[in-house]
């Protein structure tokens, strides 16, 4: 028997990630083939017409699982009864900007959205923040939703995780499916730390297989951490299809579970694990069981990793302090 329809709200629906994301949500790739979807598209007034155009195209796909599309520029209407919130709408950075430069420009969007989620969302609401700076925007949204459990607010580092999988697979000459237990720690920014010390390549320890600390420090880590800037340089626009793909991966795994014997990465509200101050939204190694993320515990962190995790977490502390002084939390 088919499941009850799930309401999925996508903010920034007329943007480039929105365009790459909505068709995959409506086709069933987000929640599986047995779950019908109702879409809510939130846009700013100037972009509502473009969102209407996307909705026309969604209709024209005749997706069997799509049970309706509402388009609005009203934040409260957008989140009324929402089960899954994909918070994409925000300004992307352009050449020469760091993601932190977007703090002030975009931070103001996420407080009202958190408040609307607090006021109207369904009890099982799950929120993924994609709009940058994603970790701190998730922190802002959560701060405005005191009645929603903190673990329902997450930030997207799955794109970084997928980028790291791909780079490590190329280096070691295996397929991405042969790599498990990679971790992205910290912020979705150039300070993030992609960690291969616990990863496995076809069942063998990845750091031992690579056996090349210079490649790790000077090639792998910067390539993954600065991939967003490299895409902007090459395309003239920030990543879109790969970002949408990562959002699908994140929510699908959250709802349906991660595979046994592996883990993934997600930005979660810290419970203090691995010395990350409680309340910061930081990326961790995670599994999903019973529809909830759990941080993988008990990993030994060596000095190489400790330094890099601490540096990224320090940046998150500074971002939190910056939005606090702007009155956003
Ligand atoms: P875009 O400019 O193409 O689209 C953004 C859309 O958001 C626009 O249509 C705009 O009208 C809308 N918007 C702006 N303010 C809004 C608001 N208050 N409510 C609803 N909609 C609003 O940008 P994009 O390329 O789709 O990127 C969106 C965001 O995602 C950017 O911040 C980008 O940096 C970020 N991003 C994050 C990741 C990640 O891995 N976390 C990856 C890629 C991009
Ligand atoms: C990315 O990682 O591609 C996005 O966060 C866009 C950016 O600004 O890097």
From TrEMBL:
Domain Lactate/malate dehydrogenase N-terminal span(s) in chain numbering: 7-146
Pfam family, one: Ldh_1_C
PROSITE patterns named in the record: MDH (PS00068)
Keywords carried by this UniProt record: NAD, Oxidoreductase, Tricarboxylic acid cycle
Catalytic activity of the protein: (S)-malate + NAD(+) = oxaloacetate + NADH + H(+)
Amino acids binding substrate: 93, 99, 132, 163
Record keyword Signal present: no
CDD domains reported in the protein's UniProt record: MDH_chloroplast-like (cd01338)
Similarity remark: Belongs to the LDH/MDH superfamily. MDH type 2 family.
HAMAP family in the cross-refs: Malate_dehydrog_2
Role: Catalyzes the reversible oxidation of malate to oxaloacetate.
Protein name as it appears in the record: Malate dehydrogenase
């Amino acid at each position: 028997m088919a499941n009850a329809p799930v309401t999925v709200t996508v903010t920034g629906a007329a943007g480039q990630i929105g365009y790459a994301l909505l068709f995959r949500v409506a086709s069933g790739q987000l929640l599986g083939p047995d779950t019908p979807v109702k879409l809510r598209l939130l846009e700013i007034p100037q972009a509502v017409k473009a969102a209407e155009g996307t909705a026309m195209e969604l209709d024209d796909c005749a997706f069997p699982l799509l049970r309706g599309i509402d388009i609005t520029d009203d934040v409260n209407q957008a989140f009324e009864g929402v089960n899954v919130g994909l918070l994409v709408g925000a300004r992307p950075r352009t050449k020469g900007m760091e993601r932190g430069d977007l703090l002030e420009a975009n931070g103001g969007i996420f407080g009202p959205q958190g408040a609307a989620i607090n006021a109207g969302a369904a009890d099982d609401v799950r929120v993924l923040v994609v709009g940058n700076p994603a970790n701190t925007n998730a922190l802002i949204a959560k701060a405005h939703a005191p009645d929603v459990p903190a673990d329902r607010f997450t930030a997207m580092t799955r794109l970084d995780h997928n980028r790291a999988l791909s780079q490590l697979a190329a280096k070691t000459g295996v397929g991405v499916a042969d790599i498990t237990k990679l971790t992205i720690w910290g912020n979705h920014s150039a300070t993030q730390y992609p960690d291969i010390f616990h990863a496995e390549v076809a069942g063998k320890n990845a750091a031992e297989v690579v056996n090349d600390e210079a490649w790790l420090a000077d090639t792998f880590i910067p390539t993954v951490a600065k991939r967003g800037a490299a895409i902007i340089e090459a395309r003239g626009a920030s990543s879109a299809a790969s970002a949408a793909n990562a959002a699908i991966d994140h929510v699908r795994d959250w709802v349906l579970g991660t595979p046994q014997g592996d883990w993934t990465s997600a930005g979660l509200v810290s419970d203090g694990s691995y010395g990350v101050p409680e309340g910061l939204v930081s990326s961790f190694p995670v599994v999903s069981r019973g529809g909830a993320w759990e941080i993988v515990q008990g990993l030994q962190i060596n000095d190489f990793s400790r330094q890099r995790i601490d540096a990224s977490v320090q940046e998150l502390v500074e971002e939190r302090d910056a939005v606090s002084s702007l009155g956003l939390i």
